[in-house]
């Protein structure tokens, strides 16, 4: 049940929206599609859903080209909301789920599960237009998930959510993944992608610049990150180490990108000679740091 995007191209007049994009999402895994605005994320997702057809290349599901019939089995949360504003929430979700082939009774059972999971119970009999944007987004997620699809395509599913609704949606997202659905979703939130994904694909200027499991992507960075705090607040000694990069962190600390040619213990020893070290930790680079390295800070 693998999704494969194979050397796909798409242009709109002179604009090359997607150029030679290839990646694979293995069955039962969660893949984050990352990139700045205009990188090609939404166009790629719309080609998977056959809203757009590729100019070149092919998209396959389970080893077969995606057809309209196959695509109709996928769950989809579009970038723009695709709900009927005048319909009641529960009524609409049951209707949309029945369109995926479920009986009315089974559709109602699945819809009620997702209404509970997404804490939409008090809104179930309201019209969609009466809901906040955040709750409308949760309804859209329920519409994508309730038919128990093998594959879900989610375009910016966390957009417009306040912190509490984001937490609710993340929990529902994890439930969907645990139940075996393969998920491809786009996001600008690197920390969220790192917390939710097994695999990542980074698009930049219409092309894939990085793809793999989260572990592979971090190992390929070939460096570590040191978080350091010295009571004096003077980090001028770091200039003695060529090849490192630093950025300010919360609480007066600094984060130091250490290449694999440098032993981080040398930094610690030098910091201790410069003052009292009140914080020191060593870890892998964050996805945000890797993203910035690949595409530059202006796009992060």
UniProtKB/TrEMBL annotation:
Coiled-coil residues: none
Q: Which Gene3D superfamilies match?
A: P-loop containing nucleotide triphosphate hydrolases
Q: Which residues does the UniProt record annotate as the domain ABC transporter?
A: 3-230
What PROSITE patterns does the record point to? ABC_TRANSPORTER_1, ABC_TRANSPORTER_2
Q: Which GO terms describe its molecular function?
A: ATP binding; ATP hydrolysis activity
Keywords (A to Z) from UniProt: ATP-binding, Nucleotide-binding, Transport
* SUPFAM superfamilies named in the record: P-loop containing nucleoside triphosphate hydrolases
**Short name of any one Pfam family annotated for the protein:** DrrA1-3_C
Q: Where is the signal peptide?
A: none
**Which family is annotated?**
Belongs to the ABC transporter superfamily.
PANTHER family attached here? Answer: ABC TRANSPORTER ATP-BINDING PROTEIN, ABC TRANSPORTER ATP-BINDING PROTEIN NATA
Protein name per UniProt: ABC transporter ATP-binding protein
Which species is listed as the source?
A: Symbiobacterium thermophilum (strain DSM 24528 / JCM 14929 / IAM 14863 / T)
